[in-house]
Amino acid sequence: MSAKKKLAGIEREVPQNARNTAVRLFRQLHGQRVRLTVVVISIVIYVALSIWNPMYSAIVIDRLWQSIQAAWNGGVPFSPLSLAPQLLQLTAQYLFTWLFYYLQSYLMASVAESLVLELRTQIARKLHRLPLRFFDQNLAGEILSRVTSDLDKISEVLQTGLLKLIVAIGTIIGSLIVMFYYSVPLTCIFLVFMAISMIVTNIVARKNLVCAAERQETIAVLTGIVEEYYNGRNVIKAYNHEAESIRKVSEAAEANRAANQKADFLTNCVNPLIRLLNRLAQVVIAILAGRAMLSGAMSIGVVQAFFQYVNQTSEPLTEASYMINSLQAALASAERTFELLDEEEEIPDPAHPVPVERARGNIAFEHVSFGYDPQRILMKDISFTALPGQKIAVVGSTGAGKTTLINLLMRFYEVNGGRITVDGVPTAEMTRSGLRRNFGMVLQDTWLFGGTVAENIAYGKPDATREEIIAAARAAKVDYFIRTMPQGYDTVLDNEAANLSAGQRQLLTIARVFLCNPPIIILDEATSSVDTRTEAEIGKAMKQLMQGRTSFVIAHRLSTIRDADIILFMEHGNIIEQGDHNTLLAKKGAYAALYYSQFE
């Protein structure tokens, strides 16, 4: 699946290349060869015992029946002790059958979970190596499904479906061989009924797959509506749309109920029908086996053994379609997982990077060109220089390319032409981590994680002392607010800090930058969510913070960037004007028109 492909509808349930996916999945198990070897040995012994147990029970029962008949005919009185060795052996066989079943199940669970752990670890590492383009072009839900539901499905099928299928194949083949040995006609009758059962099961399985897809689709719709309405609950209440919201949720829930009912009915109706066919087969076999016993063609022990083989063969045969479907779904999940692991990664860091421990802040764009699609270049020949300590403002309409410019500076994207330098060193010759350690960012969209207020402030400097955290909070004008919270700096934020206002969340992210004290600062509408008075206070603190540091400020309110050393006015991805405030006003160009439009 290309990174450009977005999730549409339901994830495919059939792999596109099952063989290669299965081979690759097996290769992932190379570190668990000892466990797999034990599992294979356990399966072989378990299947052998499952086939041998009914045969030996036939011998024991025939001897038991002969002893009872001899006692009835006036011979030696019947004594169970005479069959003690055979009964003990049969008991031991059943005990070892259970033991090897338990052993293979236990080890296979361990193998499956270890495999999932390894794949999750690989995905976690992969996500850190993927370019920002991948996340921009894929839905978050699709990516999360690769890490959660897809891997869970692989684990579940490995532990149950695959193990059952392997055991079933061995048991069915061995049992049928013995059944043909005992009676060809009875085995043929059994296979006729089983063929009917498999046809019915296959028909129902196909319809069930369609219903399952419909159920997943209705769940996705219902979940999306509930999530949307939960996040927009305040707007819904403000516009008195509660009744309409309830109606839409009810409709989605009803559609999900109907889809669930249909899928559950198909899942539950097939078993009674298959059991009915099995019972009919057993009735016919019992009648014919009774005639064979009367004629002396079969003994009572062989008949009961034959019925054991019927029971342990019929269920796997009828469940074959479901087993195959579950394996196909697991292989499809594995295929999606491997597609994620095969996505194109970021360009590797240079083998011998140039270290820039603490930059002076000399930034230069030299004839930079860039396009999200290399065939469609957005930026062409972008050039400007920011000297240490200068304030660079980037303005323009929405979609002009302001954030893209910053993303190139942070090397979230790679340029298609030209170069960007920091203190004369091309960013392509630095490690990404080394480059980004010189930057502090405050984005318009705040992000706070589940943890204490202090931990959120110290996100960029985990080893910061409490005094340093408090000092940063005071600089960001948020210390007083924090102290009014229940546990102050130790208050735990959860649920995306929903109990905080947008401005308060923004202030906490600004405090992070104060604490990191980076040489270069990027502010992307950093004060857009705070009131005018707080903005003025933050502006004073920011002005002090910017002393001696290079800063890039993206702003829509031009009143906040009039003191900028350089203003870059962008339009359609290109810089059409640059200079200080007075110079651009004197030009009476695009910047002047935008500025005066805000102050008319």
TrEMBL record:
Topological category with respect to the lipid bilayer: Multi-pass membrane protein
Domain of life per record: Bacteria
Residue intervals of the ABC transmembrane type-1 domain: 38-329
Family matches, as PROSITE patterns: ABC_TM1F (PS50929), ABC_TRANSPORTER_1 (PS00211), ABC_TRANSPORTER_2 (PS50893)
Location in the cell: Cell membrane
Transmembrane segments annotated in the record for this chain: 34-52, 99-119, 162-182, 188-205, 283-307
Keywords per UniProt: ATP-binding, Membrane, Nucleotide-binding, Transmembrane, Transmembrane helix, Transport
GO molecular function, one term: ABC-type oligopeptide transporter activity
Domain ABC transporter: 363-597
A cellular-component GO term for this protein: plasma membrane
SMART domains the record matches: AAA
Pfam families in UniProt: ABC_membrane, ABC_tran
Statement: the UniProt record of this protein carries the keyword Transport: yes
Protein name: ABC transporter ATP-binding protein/permease
